[in-house]
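Need residues for this backbone.
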């Protein structure tokens, strides 16, 4: 067996798998003509209605507040765990925290502590703590070891970090934290769809009423908020934003939970029903078998099908779209329009895009696949466009322009990076595919949402464990493939991105 795996063979394998699964994907339109509704939506979007300024401003402020509070707590916890990340219990805890999507954390926490600001903040902080710990630990490992080695041998890990590593990695840590805040803004908007008072809640309300002009205003404000994040969030202003965020969230009123709700959640609700009812292991096995046949296997199948088809669509969008952001390929006007398109698609969360497509096509895998492919393809296309701009000055003076430049110069040079980025996003697409079930699409998230609606928290916990195992499996396969391919420019630490964008591999 050859040590190096051909990237082109990997592409053929993934396309073949998606092609075999495509006939089994539910891509039908739910029995109605989507074009009249699409026409009304486009007409509303063309005339954004900003009349509900006060409501819109409050939702925007809360969206920022949830993101800032959640990211700040997650970053602080990750910073504390990073020097100890090489210890197995700490690493296992971080893996468990980041394996569960923010919206699933929110659903669980609402069951445990009620629908309020603490549930929303912790839904972001818990998975982000695991992500920050991993990223910060890798940054520590990649830092110049000479300052650490100069300290006395018995110096503890925390002191080595504070005095030797932290001064060297402060800049990349801040850059990654800012990027994670952008992710937190998307997650903060999405948790509004399950009842928390962010932009997602308002967007859902306006769509249910058919007020597409107001929905358009929300989307415009949201995209502008994401696009300008590097202007209004500066490191020196971070303390102000953190204080303002927690102050605003303290004013959010929530319905009171009964006394002992959290203890009941931990000691009873998450325990499988057969064990609570005294049926023993025999009852537990029967319960798991019924659940596996009725929910786990169908949920896994639909989640994997959506993931694999969406991954191929992601690759198509990224590969054929990254040239839109390169002036030498598409021209100055084309670059401006292409950049606007890519930024818009990458700014809107997959869940929000799927929600929009769901209004048009109805509940099937089609809205999920389109949303996942367009969003992730735009992220990769944007990164490849940035890298293409970086290598253009290194090319010969008589290099071609336009499509010839894209086809004969840029695409071959960036193909390895393109494939590595798709593999980086593979596990993320899987988790997002599961989340789409909350919209009524029959992935694993559908059964989790149904279980929580029926107050069967024990079933939801089992299904979340299945998602975590699937994510870990995909991540391990992805890592192995990237190492076998030995893509040029991918280091042993699997950093395949531009220096300013490297942290996005963990998004």
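Answer:
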């Amino acid at each position: 067996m050859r040590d190096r795996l051909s990237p082109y063979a990997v592409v053929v394998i993934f396309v073949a798998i998606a092609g075999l699964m495509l006939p089994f994907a539910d891509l039908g339109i739910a029995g109605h003509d989507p074009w009249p509704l699409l026409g009304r939506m486009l007409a509303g979007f063309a005339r954004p209605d900003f009349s509900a300024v006060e409501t819109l401003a409050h939702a925007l402020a809360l969206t920022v507040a949830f993101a800032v509070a959640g990211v700040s707590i997650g970053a602080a916890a990750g910073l504390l765990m990073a020097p100890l990340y090489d210890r197995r219990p700490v690493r296992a805890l971080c893996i468990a925290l980041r394996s569960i999507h923010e919206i699933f954390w929110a659903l669980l926490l609402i069951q445990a502590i009620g629908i309020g600001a603490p549930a929303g903040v912790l839904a972001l902080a818990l998975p982000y703590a695991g992500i920050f710990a991993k990223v910060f630990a890798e940054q520590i490992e990649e830092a110049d070891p000479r300052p650490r080695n100069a300290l006395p041998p018995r110096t503890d890990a925390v002191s080595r970090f504070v005095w030797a590593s932290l001064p060297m990695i402060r800049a990349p840590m801040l850059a990654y934290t800012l990027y994670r805040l952008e992710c937190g803004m998307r997650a903060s908007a999405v948790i509004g769809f399950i009842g928390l008072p962010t932009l997602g809640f308002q967007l859902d309300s306006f769509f249910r009423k058919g007020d597409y002009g107001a929905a358009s205003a929300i989307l415009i404000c949201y995209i502008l908020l994401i696009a300008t994040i590097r202007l209004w969030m500066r490191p020196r202003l971070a303390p102000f934003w953190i204080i303002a965020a927690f102050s605003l969230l303290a004013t959010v009123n929530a319905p009171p939970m009964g006394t002992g709700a959290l203890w009941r959640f931990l000691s009873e609700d998450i325990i499988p029903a057969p064990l609570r009812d005294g049926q023993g292991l025999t009852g537990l096995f029967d319960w798991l078998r019924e659940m596996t046949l009725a929910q786990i296997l169908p949920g896994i199948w639909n989640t994997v099908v959506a993931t694999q088809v969406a991954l191929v669509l992601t690759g198509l969008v990224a590969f054929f779209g990254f040239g839109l952001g390169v002036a030498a390929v598409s021209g100055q006007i084309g670059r401006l329009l292409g950049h606007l398109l890519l930024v818009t698609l990458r700014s809107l969360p997959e869940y929000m895009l799927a929600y929009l497509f769901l209004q048009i096509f109805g509940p099937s895998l089609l809205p999920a696949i389109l949303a996942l492919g367009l969003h992730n393809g735009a992220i990769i296309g944007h990164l490849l466009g940035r890298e293409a701009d970086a290598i253009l000055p290194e090319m010969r003076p008589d290099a071609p322009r336009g499509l010839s430049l894209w086809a004969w110069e840029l695409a071959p040079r960036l193909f390895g990076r393109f494939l590595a980025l798709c593999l980086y996003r593979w596990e993320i697409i899987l988790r997002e595919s599961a989340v789409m079930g909350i919209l009524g699409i029959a992935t694993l998230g559908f059964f989790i949402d149904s279980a929580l609606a029926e107050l069967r928290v024990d079933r939801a916990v089992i299904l979340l464990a299945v998602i975590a195992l699937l994510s870990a499996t995909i991540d391990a396969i992805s890592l192995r493939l990237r190492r076998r391919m030995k893509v040029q420019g991918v280091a042993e630490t699997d950093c395949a991105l531009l220096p300013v964008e490297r942290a996005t591999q963990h998004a």
